[in-house]
Amino acid sequence: MSSGTVYCYHCHTQHPREEMRLVVSKSGKRWRCIASIKAAQKSREEREAFGRKVSAMNKAEAQAKLKARTAFANQTALK
């Protein structure tokens, strides 16, 4: 993790520290991005849309990592 970014426990991604707020949750203090805090204050439909967007980004990132690992494993196996 770079010193300029912080992990958001809500959307599970790194954000610049300026876009984050330290919030108190049941499990203690955690960092949460301003976008997720603002999204939580909107209507149910808008919150669900934000959640779908974050889920899609996380899924795309996970698939890209898996593809890179698979390509690396295949490349290493050929040697």
Walkthrough of the structure:
The chain is α+β, with helices and mostly antiparallel strands and 79 residues long. The chain has helices spanning 34-40, 44-78, and strands spanning 5-7, 14-16, 20-25, 28-33. Strand 1 (5-7) and strand 2 (14-16) form a beta hairpin.
What amount of the residues lies in strands?
A: 15-25%
**Strand and helix order:** EEEEHH
* Span between termini: 32 Å
Give the number of helices.
2
Main structural class: alpha+beta
Helix content range = 40-55%
Low-confidence stretches: none
In short:
This protein is α+β, with helices and mostly antiparallel strands and 79 residues long.
Q: What order do the helices and strands come in, and which of them pair?
A:
Layout: E1 5-7, E2 14-16, E3 20-25, E4 28-33, H1 34-40, H2 44-78
Antiparallel strand pairs: 1-2, 3-4
